[in-house]
Amino acid sequence: MQKMINSVQNYAWGSRDALTRLYGIPNNQGLPMAELWMGAHPQNSSQLINDQKERQALCDLIQQNPAAYLGPQAQKGDQLPFLFKVLCAAQPLSLQVHPDKQAAQKGFAKENAKGIPITAKERLYKDDNHKPELLYALTPFKAMNGFRTIEDLQRLFTPLVEAHPDIHLFVEKPNLKHLSNVFLSLLSMTDETKKRALAVLQSVVAGRSDEPWSTIQHIASFYPEDPGLFAPVFLNVITLKPGEAMFLEAQTPHAYIEGVALEVMANSDNVLRAGLTEKWIDVPELMANVRFVPKPVSNLLTLPLQRENRQIFPVPVSDFGFSIYQLKSDGQLLTPNITCIIFCMEGNARLEQQGKKLELIPGESCFCSAGESSIRVYGKGKIAYVSHPPINI
């Protein structure tokens, strides 16, 4: 049970003040503060503070003694299987997908064989892992997630048939094959084809305040000439209320638009992009990793299981579990022998373990190794609890 020192990723789409307003994290450099990382990813590992007030990188500690920190997980690979973030989006993130595990392993090996440096801008596969994600809203959080139903797509594309021949073909014969064709065609547009399509889109969007047109107007203020402006027509647009969550499967196109959220994922940084970004775009590679599975927006929420003062958000992967605890003044025991990160969301959390005490205030977190005895947590407020293996009971 050790307090963590976590660092911030300064991506251009990040907020300059959200982490300061919510958690008092200073922004001395005045840069966009996009993500607070909690975990052991080698690109940005958290540090732990030991009893001698010394700092050590969590990824190094795990490598030195995997069994002590990860328990049985060490038999499957000497890595913490999840990464935990506070994500602060002040403007839209890239239109993207994450590869599944098989594609990640293949892509990582292929780019290694080509000698592409991990830090190269054109590097797509930073590791050999998949990246399923759970997003839990701390503020109203707007996002796109998964393809709309065929009926919804046909209705929304009908006023856009003059933008591109493949849109006309899809509206005439709406099916998954034509959906795949029009998705590829629109994301690959250049020059006059792109100019014409965006002009038609803009004429349809003008003066509209309903969805998805209002979202397109918002994104256009950042990326006015990007083919990704068609993404809100293709994808479900959803605004999560604080306390709501959704899961993002591998090979599902998505983009975050605006808001602050907790994000839990498998320990990976693999992102394939197709638009709405200044970063490297590879539409063919993204297309090779997209599943065209329409999903109604009503199916996007991940509904929690209520267990007394605990909300458990079930996920269909074994990489992590995610829960929210409403703290009790008389305390409660957390599950022993679990590798976990505890993040204080609000109030304060006091943790005790075999006489050792630790206090967390909002924005602070601690790491608990596998094999440790039970931890009792007291306080008033909320904590987020990310664990491996998942605890869904």
Automatic annotation (TrEMBL):
| Phosphomannose isomerase type I helical insertion domain mapped to chain residues | 163-235
Q: Does the keyword field hold NAD?
A: no
The molecular function GO annotations come to: mannose-6-phosphate isomerase activity; zinc ion binding
* PROSITE patterns according to UniProt: PMI_I_1
List keywords of the entry alphabetically. Answer: Isomerase, Metal-binding, Zinc
Gene Ontology cellular-component terms listed: cytosol
Cofactor names: Zn(2+)
Q: Which residues form the active site?
A: R273
Which residues are recorded as binding Zn(2+)? Q96, H98, E133, H254
Residue ranges occupied by any Mannose-6-phosphate isomerase cupin domain in the UniProt entry: 311-386
Q: Which reaction does it catalyse?
A: D-mannose 6-phosphate = D-fructose 6-phosphate
Name the Enzyme Commission number(s) assigned to this protein. 5.3.1.8
Q: How is the cofactor bound?
A: Binds 1 zinc ion per subunit.
Q: Which NCBIfam families match?
A: manA, PRK15131.1
Q: What's the name of the protein?
A: mannose-6-phosphate isomerase
